């Protein structure tokens, strides 16, 4: 992969450079609750702007349905990006329409603009090659060069990630270079015991990585929304908790294989449950019940691991040589369900091993809950992306950057 330093050396002054970033940050209304992903890509943008390029930044935010949706606008991100860069960042209210064309045309050398959410256009995520290609063509007409630096999205075969770099001379940004450098070490040489902690809400996306992790890890601790499909597979009632019913046979197979291979597979022994999803805006008290993980009432959902599980997971991290953690242990955005995630974060800090936290929300959780991000070995901006990288899969957004 070409680096951006090589790109800069070849002369980028006056060139329009499309930077595919992952600015999918957590928002409460229009307030950014964690700007880690913006700060992570800012050095790449600053470097290109300092070299005199006209920088066109683009990203997705959330999962809108292929049409404009104000709840997923990147407008607040343009403001924050400008503050971080210490310069004005203009904002195009569309991706390839009149606003984008005019905003790009108005860019002076060294200036930066941010396009509106790429996923407001159905072509971005389409499974149809022609539809994705047509959107990539439209994006390509805005720029002369492409820099891929949205590590959190490199596992997506999306127009701006996969198809666009095939249409423009391209390079990998500094964030991607750093992420790949650290994660590669985890695929080559891990100090044992290697403990993997999995949680979060993207259960269908991430359950499959366990297949691979069973060959690599010594211990797998499961929490968050990920735990309930396993609990159900073991025959327990999980009420209205997050559940991936079609994955139950796979979960049973994973449990059996873990036992056969001597991989410790640890599930919650107690959980906090409620009939209602918590109020994340007003943060009114949730008053959850604490129940054993084999006694979840039929009308309630599990929203955090309980105190016995916190202690158990901390003990399983205490002697780790390497830890990879993706996915919060509960709905950490509400204080009544943040303790499981806090305990795991503390467990990583207390362990003697090399610790990697991966994922937009996982990394945000660490910072929002008051931990020092520099105390961890590495905080990755990618959750699904880092898991698939560790799995050894070919990631579309990395493959597309190769020469
Ligand atoms: N038991 C649960 N039920 C419902 N949601 C949960 C539960 N536990 C955690 N979550 C939610 O999971 C979300 C984060 O999951 P996610 O899989 O997106 O992790 P991530 O770190 O952001 O990784 P990625 O970068 O791949 O998105 C949080 O918003 C949190 O509230
Ligand atoms: O948060 C993430 O993992 C990335 O931004 C990718 O988002 P996606 O899972 O909606 O593709």
From TrEMBL:
Chief place where the protein resides: cytoplasm
Annotated positions binding ATP: 206, 302, 333, 359-362
UniProtKB keywords: ATP-binding, Cytoplasm, Glycolysis, Kinase, Nucleotide-binding, Transferase
UniProt-listed InterPro entries: Phosphoglycerate_kinase, Phosphoglycerate_kinase_N, Phosphoglycerate_kinase_sf
Location relative to the cell: Cytoplasm
Catalytic activity: (2R)-3-phosphoglycerate + ATP = (2R)-3-phospho-glyceroyl phosphate + ADP
One of the record's GO cellular component terms: cytosol
Binding residues for substrate: 22-24, 37, 60-63, 119, 156
Residue sites binding (2R)-3-phosphoglycerate per the record: 37, 119, 156
Name of the molecule in the record: Phosphoglycerate kinase
Organism: Streptomyces mobaraensis
């Amino acid at each position: 992969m070409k680096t951006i330093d090589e790109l800069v050396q070849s002369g980028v002054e006056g060139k329009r450079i499309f930077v595919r970033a992952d600015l999918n940050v957590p928002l409460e209304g229009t307030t950014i609750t964690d700007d880690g992903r913006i700060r992570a890509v800012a050095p790449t943008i600053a470097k290109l702007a300092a070299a005199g390029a006209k920088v066109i930044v683009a990203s997705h935010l959330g999962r809108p349905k292929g049409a404009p949706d104000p709840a997923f606008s990147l407008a607040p991100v343009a403001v924050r990006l400008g503050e971080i860069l210490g310069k004005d960042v203009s904002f195009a209210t569309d991706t390839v329409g009149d606003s984008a064309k005019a905003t790009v045309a108005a860019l002076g050398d060294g200036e930066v603009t941010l396009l509106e959410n790429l996923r407001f256009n159905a072509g971005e995520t389409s499974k149809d090659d022609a539809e994705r290609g047509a959107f990539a063509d439209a994006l390509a007409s805005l720029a002369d060069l492409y820099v891929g630096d949205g590590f959190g999205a490199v596992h997506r075969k999306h127009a701006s990630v996969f198809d666009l770099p095939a249409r423009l001379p391209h390079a990998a940004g500094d964030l991607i270079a750093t992420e790949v450098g650290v994660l590669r070490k985890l695929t080559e040489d891990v100090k044992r015991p290697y403990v993997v902690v999995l949680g979060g809400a993207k259960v269908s996306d991430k359950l499959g990585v366990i297949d691979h992790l069973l060959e690599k890890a010594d211990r797998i601790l499961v929490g968050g929304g990920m735990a309930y499909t396993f609990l159900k597979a073991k025959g327990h009632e999980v009420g209205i908790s997050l559940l991936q019913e079609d994955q139950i046979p796979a979960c049973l197979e994973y449990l059996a294989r873990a036992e056969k291979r001597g991989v410790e597979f640890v599930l919650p022994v107690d959980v906090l449950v409620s009939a209602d999803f918590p109020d994340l805006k007003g943060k009114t008290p949730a008053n959850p019940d604490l129940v054993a993980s084999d006694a979840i009432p039929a009308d309630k959902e599990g929203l955090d691991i309980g105190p016995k599980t916190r202690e158990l997971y901390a003990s399983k991290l205490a002697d780790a040589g390497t830890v990879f953690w993706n996915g919060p242990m509960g709905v950490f955005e509400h204080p009544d369900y943040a303790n499981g995630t806090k305990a795991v974060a503390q467990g990583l800090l207390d362990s003697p091993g090399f610790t990697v936290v991966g994922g937009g929300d996982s990394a945000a959780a660490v910072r929002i809950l008051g931990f020092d991000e520099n105390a961890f070995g590495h905080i990755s901006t990618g959750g699904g992306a880092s898991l698939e990288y560790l799995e050894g899969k070919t990631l579309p957004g990395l493959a597309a950057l190769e020469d």
